[in-house]
From TrEMBL:
This is Multidrug-efflux transporter. It is found in: Cell membrane. It holds the Pfam family MatE. InterPro entries: MATE_fam (IPR002528), MATE_MdtK (IPR050222), MdtK-like (IPR048279). The chain crosses the membrane at residues 49-70, 76-94, 101-124, 144-163, 175-197, 203-225, 273-293, 305-324, 336-356, 368-389. GO terms for molecular function: antiporter activity; xenobiotic transmembrane transporter activity. PANTHER family: FMN_FAD EXPORTER YEEO-RELATED, MULTIDRUG RESISTANCE PROTEIN NORM-RELATED. Keywords: Antiport, Cell membrane, Ion transport, Membrane, Transmembrane, Transmembrane helix, Transport. It comes from Haloplanus rubicundus.
Length: 471
């Protein structure tokens, strides 16, 4: 993408002291396909929620909130492992060691299946028992069990999809995964709409449609990761081939991948596990509040797609600069991308807050539920600013291999701050309003601490150690 409008934006950002044109262009080139990819991925569950809300009603929206808590735990384990993959791939590729980068991809794919298979089996066979622990009325729990059991197989496809997306990003190609993921999102809308409205399957149709679309994406990615092209484009430069199997250091590479990924996986899991007590607290105020809370979280997650781009750009550019031994340029990119993220998210938050009643109405038709959901959407708008900044800061730290510190800050924000604030609603007159404060606090604390970490430059020493280990 390019042209005069982009040059105008680059000039404005440069004069405002946000980011210089050269770094903006490189960041933009990496980010915009990843942003579209994030929108495509997150739109699947968001569209499902909207279609189910209009076809079945508030109880179904609340049910998907319960099922989504479990789905996100599984999925974000995969995102954590993929975060370690992009660190190893970008550093090896930046150091011109394509053989090592290819081996990292192969190891990641094996580990994804070992992790995803038991989770998918658990969800598919024990869905009613799992959702029952959250406590609610029978109708929402019934919808939750149906959705979770039928969407569980999609984890077997989503884990490799995440590895494939991060692998392409690690070598500087964010266009190929964007096209594949966007196609998957369109397929998901088509499958789910046909099954929900055409076949009259309701919640079950949404789950089956998502599983089918995710499987199609996995097949398409498998083609590219094997080194084959998509109409003469998109072949992965660090493809998994027969030559990859001759790489002689799979064991140490596996240990290093797990060492880098474990904090990311733990962090992502911790971020999602806190959803269980939060949703349970929301459930004490009835299905309407659960639905409102879930609508707000889905809108926030969809808006966070910008962070997908900025975070992966920070990880890739910082990782490549560190791999090439240029720490000064790595720092310049890190700080500039954090500033760019803050600028974009303030604008996005302003729109979310202004449009909060209309956005709430896009998911539920009951006027009373819309009135309940609108303040939650506005709170999501405030919290997404900090979520976006945190994504860029964490991306920098991930590019250097400094993954333990963001894990600690995530635990502090979610469990040390957000959960106690939400719990105040159970013992004070605040009631459900306490959940609004919890949404903001859970992103504000990690963002503040991770930005301080980036400014401290301690991550450079960790990056040097990882680069040396890969030599």
């Amino acid at each position: 993408m390019g042209g005069r409008p982009l040059d105008t934006v680059a000039g404005l950002l440069d004069r405002a002291g946000v980011i210089d044109p050269r770094r903006f262009r490189e960041t933009f080139d990496l980010s915009w396909p990843r942003i579209v990819t994030g929108l495509a991925i997150m739109s699947k569950s968001t569209v499902d929620l909207a279609m189910v809300g209009w076809d079945v009603g508030t109880a179904a929206v609340a049910g998907l909130a319960f099922a989504n808590a479990y789905w996100q735990v599984g999925k974000f384990l995969g995102i954590g492992l993929a975060g370690g993959t992009v660190t190893l791939v970008s550093q090896a590729y930046g150091g011109e060691n394509t053989e090592r980068a290819s081996a990292a991809v192969a190891v990641s794919l094996v580990l994804t299946l070992l992790i995803a298979a038991p989770i998918a089996l658990l969800y598919a066979t024990t869905a009613p028992e799992l959702v029952a622990v959250l406590g609610s009325e029978p109708e929402p729990l019934g919808h939750a069990a149906t959705y979770l059991a039928l969407v569980a197989p999609a984890l077997l496809f989503e884990f490799p999809n995440l590895i494939a997306s991060r692998t392409y990003a690690g070598v500087g190609d964010t266009v190929t995964p964007m096209v594949v993921r966007a196609g998957g999102a369109l397929a998901n809308i088509g499958f789910s709409a046909a099954l929900i409205f055409g076949a009259g399957l309701g919640v079950a149709g949404a789950a089956i449609g998502t599983s089918l679309a995710t499987g199609v994406v996995a097949l398409v990615f498998a083609w590219g990761l094997a080194g084959r092209t998509y109409f003469r484009r998109g072949a992965c430069p660090v493809a998994v081939t027969r030559e990859t199997l001759r790489y002689g250091e799979f064991a140490p590479l596996s240990r290093r991948l797990l060492r880098v990924s474990a904090p990311l996986m733990a962090r992502r899991t911790a971020e999602m596990l806190v959803a269980f007590p939060l949703v349970a607290i929301a459930a004490t105020f009835g299905p309407a509040v659960v639905a409102a809370y879930e609508v707000a979280r889905r809108i926030r997650t969809l808006t966070d797609s910008f962070s997908w781009g900025f975070s992966i750009a920070a990880s890739t550019l910082v990782g490549q600069r560190l791999g090439a031994g240029d720490e000064a340029d790595a720092e310049a990119y890190a700080r500039a991308i954090v500033r760019l993220s803050a600028t974009v998210y303030v604008l996005a938050a302003t729109l979310l807050i202004a449009l909060s009643p209309w956005l709430a109405g896009a998911f539920v038709s009951d006027p009373a539920v819309v009135a309940t959901a609108a303040p939650f959407v506005a709170a999501a708008g405030v919290s997404v600013v900090f979520l976006g900044v945190d994504g860029s800061a964490t991306g920098t730290l991930r590019g250097a291999g400094d993954t333990q510190y963001p894990f600690v800050t995530s635990l502090l924000g979610r469990y040390g701050c957000a959960l106690p604030v939400a719990a105040l609603g159970l013992v004070t007159p605040l009631g459900a309003t306490a959940l609004l404060g919890a949404m903001v606090v859970e992103t504000f604390v990690p963002a503040t601490l991770n930005v301080r970490r980036v400014r401290s430059n301690r991550w450079k020493a960790i990056g040097r150690a990882h680069v040396a280990a890969g030599d």
